[in-house]
Amino acid sequence: MLHNKSFVRKTKSGKITKNVREHYLRDDIYCGVLACGVCDLAAARLSVSPDTILVLDTNVVLNQIDLLENPAMDNIVVLSVVLQEVKNKNMAVYNRIRALCSNATRKFFVFSNEHHKDTFVHDMAGESKNDRNDRAIRVAAQWYQKHLGGLGQVVLITNDRENRMKAVEEGISAETIETYVKSLGRQDLVDLLVRPLSAEDVEMEEVEDLRPSKRKIIYAEHKPLSEITSGLHRGIYHQGKLRVNRYNPFEAYVGSESIGDEIIIYGRANMNRAFDGDVVAVELLPQDQWQEENSLSLADEEDEDGGIHLVPGSADDAPRTSNMILGPAGDAIPAPFRPSGKVVGIIKRNWHSYCGSLEPMPMPAGNGGVAHALFVSKDKRIPKIRIQTRQLGNLLNKRIIVTVDSWDRLSRYPSGHYVRTIGDIGDRDTETEVVLIENDIDARPFSSQVLACLPPLPWSVSSEDLVNPTRQDLRHLRIFSVDPPGCKDIDDALHCTTLPNGNFDVGVHIADVTNFVHPNTPLDDEASERGTSVYLVERRIDMLPKPLTEDICSLRADVDRLAFSVIWEMTPEAEIISTRYTKSVIRSCAALSYIEAQARMDDSRLVDPMTTDLRNMNSLAKLMRRRRIERGAITLASAEVKFQIDTETHDPLDIGMYQIREANQMVEEFMLAANVSVARKILEHYPLCSLLRRHPTPTREMLEPLLRTAASVGINLDVTSSKALADSLDNAIGEDPYFNKLIRILTTRCMTQAVYFCSGDLTPPEYHHYGLAAPLYTHFTSPIRRYADVIVHRLLAASLGICKLPMVFQDRPQLTSIADNLNYRHRNAQMASRASVELHTLIFFKNRPTDTEARIVKIRSNGFIVFVPKYGIEGPVYLTERSEKGGGEWFVDEQQQKIKKMDGTISYGVLQRVNIHLEVVEPQPNRPKLQLTLI
Fold it and tell me: What number of CA atoms fall less than 13 Å from residue 222's CA on the CB side?
């Protein structure tokens, strides 16, 4: 059946045209109920006995997705009109409901009501889009009732009072989500309900001594979006992402392009209910309320209010301190002020699920009613969240997940709801799962659909592969891999042989992952979504299933494997004469660890061919590295921590800084060279759709803290170019042997994040990679671990005529979306790795109090932040009582980057060595931390 929709529109030339859209209606769209005697049951998912079939409206899906994901919520019809509305309003919820609908173990059925001849509804004059969709939902629910007859009960679930009343008048059974869930008699499901904040909830803050007093306005009202847009246009407001200080949850920063500087947001009142990661609109405070850089302090878990009792804007909201800086003549001069502001509106929320525990509290009277409890996130940047629960006794001493629902201006805390329990507090597996959840890492087992894409095991190179004209047989070459100890997912190998003309034939051979991961398959979709493998201290979460990562694709020794090779002819001076690219078959003769490769190169008694190859490669790598540095590449450093793990208990046995050897640098140099060569090749063929990686140049403001720190110890860093900075860092030598590495670590922290991008989205000058001083760069060398490399392999194969370019490369917006997801996943993987290190550091130092040496890296008004080189640990050291918000008897000398006692007897300066005591303490229940105390 064909239904026509017509409408008229005016063209640019002024003509009136009539447009007709054809909408096909069918009578063969099935209900999805297994007991139905009329419909095809091939795709049926729903049961009618003894279950009730639920038809959901849009707002129930949008607001109650945590509840719907609970396995107890099943037998649900999701209408196509609801899916479309959800997609238009919240893409994250849309992806979650789609995942439920495609999960074969769940009874969710998508019914195309907009294409069924009996459930399609025509537009009515004067009817809003929302009312039309509500009517379509009621019509579909009524159709299900009639269609199933007496087979089972159909209930429309809606919290819209008007929609519910109309449904009842039309003979449809309708309930609110709360009424339905309570009828199930499951307390855990009731806790999952999202409820709007009520007056009763606000009053509970007074009852439970969760100040402030009842009905008092605590926060300023958020400006409407129309006013924010106008204010941004006129320069009154400034837009940016709010970043909360990890050492002080009452101090945040908003990077503003409009003023070219970071705006300090100090105090909960000025943050005005914004969460870390929210995109906010900020209004600058009057200059007499701007915050001094040196007056910002360290805060701790014991700090509670953070100045939230006042509506932002009053002079008392962020009090100025009396800190002064000593001038050259010893006279006191005012400290420099940083732009300070207040949040006036939220442009985009960053609310998600949070992991933590409930604040210990007495059980409520009756021990079975609703308890109001405060949830404390493990992430110190997140404020406490108030929840209601009927299962308090079961949740105390557990790590749980809570989602934020709302934050009323009358309420001191945001309101949320319980989602699920993770496990016991302190259990290593529980705490590791917390790390994964907090960083949105998908650690679920691969689905049967994904695993079905893999070739059967045991796998071996086929005769077809060997005779394939697009694949070269390189098994005669002496190829070997060099990786960390115990590496099983080996995705790169090398060779270096001497040519008759005295030059070298040098190759980088990368696992041919795209031979097994094909576009638009469940395996490819899963890899695209995961984006990268995640490396924790004691485990690895793979981007691809283990049969691929550790067997089929892994370039293990003494087995034939498929590879994608970049091969150069190089002079002894490491000049590239020619480059060729080919798919290949290789047979690695050895899988060396960095330690083994280094030992071979260092042992002068060894003169075997492979050791000679290693030494030749190392000589070439040193020349390549020197030239790269001469071009302006910066040698940075990071605090990489290495744990020795007990193989049985998985507990850390020892901890120390990761040691970089020449062998590491040799492999790195050839991987960089391969990535640069491939970047040139794919961009030459596909200038508008290549996936590249750029490292934006840091701004002067970003480097300012580093410059101040260096200047305070008499070192002048030139940051006019990457070459100037690299030379300055080479010359930054102090008496302390660790001094130069510390300066490089601080430099790393001032850098922007390197990111993936689609070449068509930017101009060539923006492709530049600042850290590598390379005009072009991409990722090609780790397709087992990174999806970016999978995309680049497909581009390179297409540029060589081996295969056609997949259709996705013709869709630039989708490519941009893929790049954005890769950046998000890459960043999250880094954060998860760091959090795993912090967790195992806590485990290691528990019951192991230790004295050690540290270096001061940042000065604050009440203490300083130190870095511990031996363990790669960073943390705050307090000089004053935590209750002293100002410096008390201490003051900051901004020019010399020192904190001094008023009587001049003691001072501490940045980069100074200090001795500290490390000990795990628990100042708040369920929040253990590593406390650093000055000896």
Answer: 19
Tens of pLDDT, residue by residue over 358-373, are: 987 666 555 456 788 8
Contact in structure between 506 and 495 (CB atoms under 8 Å): yes
For 614-665, what is each residue's pLDDT tens digit?
A: 999 999 999 999 999 999 888 877 766 777 776 666 677 677 666 778 999 9
Torsion of CA 794, 799, 804, 805, to 10 degrees: 60
Look up the CATH number of the domain holding residue 884: 2.40.50.140
Q: Which two tokens stand for residue 97?
A: 């409901």
Same domain, 250 and 114: no
Q: Is residue 744 part of a domain?
A: no
Pairwise CA distance, residues 276 & 380, whole Å: 10
The size of the chain, in residues, is 935
- What single DSSP character describes residue 738? T
Residues 6 or more apart whose CB falls under 8 angstroms from that of 155 comprise 52, 53, 54, 55, 173, 174, 175, 180
Nearest to 435 by CA among 838, 927, 835: 835
Tokens of 920: 């795990």
Report d(CA 524, CA 543) in Å as an integer: 10
Q: Report if residue 514 sits inside a domain.
A: yes
pTM equals 0.82
Share of the chain above pLDDT 70, in %: 86
Highest mean pLDDT of the ranges 92-101, 392-401, 569-578: 569-578
Taking the C-alpha atoms of residue 590 and residue 493, their distance in angstroms, rounded to an integer, is 9
Counting Cβ atoms within 10 Å, is residue 629 exposed (0-12), middle (13-18) or buried (19+)? middle
290 shares its domain with 383: yes
State the CATH number of the domain containing residue 265. Answer: 2.40.50.690
Contact 778, 691 (CB under 8 A): yes
- DSSP conformation class of 551: I
The candidate with the shortest Cα–Cα distance to 408, out of 161, 193, 205, is 205
Whether residue 843 is contained in a domain is answered as no
| Strand spans (E) along 86-126 | 108-111
What is the identity of the amino acid at 684?
E
With 50 as the cut, is the pLDDT of residue 199 above it?
no
- Report in angstroms the alpha-carbon separations of 121 from 25, 39, 114, 118: 11, 22, 8, 8
Q: Are 195 and 418 in contact (CB under 8 A)?
A: no
The count of structural domains within the chain is 4
Distance CA(132)–CA(136), nearest Å, equals 6
3-state secondary structure 248-269: EEEEEEEEECCCCEEEEEECHH
Same domain membership, residue 816 and residue 930: no
Distance CA 216, CA 84 (A): 40
pLDDT in tens, 207-223: 444 443 455 788 999 99
Give the integer Cα–Cα distance in Å for 506 and 510.
Answer: 13
**Domain C-terminal end among 121, 152, 187:** 187
Nearest to 887 by CA among 872, 902, 871, 875: 902
126 and 243 together in one domain: no
Structure tokens at 150: 């007496």
For 630, half-sphere exposure in the C-beta direction (CA atoms, 13 angstrom radius) is: 6
Do 180 and 199 sit in the same domain of this protein?
no
Region 515-537 average pLDDT: 95
Provide the domain limits for residue 860: 849-934
Examine residue 714 and state whether it is found in any structural domain, yes or no: no
Question: Measured between alpha carbons, how far is 634 from 727 in angstroms, rounded to an integer?
Answer: 9
